[in-house]
Amino acid sequence: MPKMKTKSGAKKRFRFTASGKAKHGVVGKRHGMSKRGNRFLRQATGMAIMSDPDTRILKRNFFPYAR
Predict the structure, then answer these.
(1) Using an 8 Å Cβ cutoff, are 6 and 65 in contact?
(2) Neighbours of 24 (CB within 10 A)
(3) Label partner for 19 (CA 20 to 30 A): which of 8, 32, 57, 65?
(4) Cα Rg for the chain, rounded, in angstroms?
(5) pLDDT tens sequence for the chain (67 residues)
């Protein structure tokens, strides 16, 4: 039986922490910055941790060999 493949779109959008939690880029910073407040822009830097149910779905459907 051939190897299962990881979804290539998911590889580019998500990373996993050492404890197995999923991280994703903060949403809302692609365009339209002028209508967003300075506080939002400041807090929306870096990565955010996904919820546990969403992480389970992500691992099961998109990362067949995830930890």
Answers:
(1) yes
(2) 15
(3) 8
(4) 15
(5) 899 999 999 999 999 999 999 999 999 999 999 999 999 999 999 999 999 999 999 999 999 987 6
CA dist 63 and 5 (Å) reads: 8
To which residue do tokens 């830097």 refer? 45
> How many domains does the chain contain in total?
1
Instruction: Give the distance, in angstroms, between the CA of residue 3 and the centroid of all CA atoms in the same chain.
Output: 24
Reported residue count of the chain is 67
Residue 2 lies in a domain: no
The structure's pTM equals 0.79
44: in domain: yes
